[in-house]
Amino acid sequence: MRLNIANYDIDKERLPRHIAIIMDGNGRWAKRRNLPRIEGHRQGVRRTRQLVETCGKLGVDYLTIFAFSIENWVRPEKEVKFLMNLFKEVIKDQVPDLVKNNVRIRFIGRFDRIPDDVMKSMRWAEEMTRDRSGLTLLVAISYGGRSEIIDAVKKIIKKGIPPHRIDEKTFCEFLYAPDVPSPDLLIRTSGECRVSNFLTYQTVYTELWITKTLWPDFTPALLLKAISDYEKRERRFGGV
Question: Is 169 among the domain residues?
Answer without folding.
Answer: no
